[in-house]
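Q: Sequence in, structure out?
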Amino acid sequence: MTDRTSNAGCFAGGGAIYGLGIIGAWVFFFQQADAFWAFIWAFFQGIFWPAFMVYEVFRTLVE
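A: Exactly. Output:
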C-alpha cells in the first residue's frame, strides 16, 4: 500500500541538477589543471563547488 502523504519522489530532480553541476564543474576545473595535484584538487573542487554556489544564491536571496 502506498502512502499518499509521502513526497520522497518530489525532490529527485534536485539531485539530477546537482549532478549536472558536478559534471560541469569537473569539465571546467579539469581543463585548467596541468599537474597531478591540480587534477586531484579539481576533483574535490568539482564535488563541492555546486554546493557553494547554491549557498551563495540562497544567501543573496535572503539579503
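The chain has one domain: 9-62.
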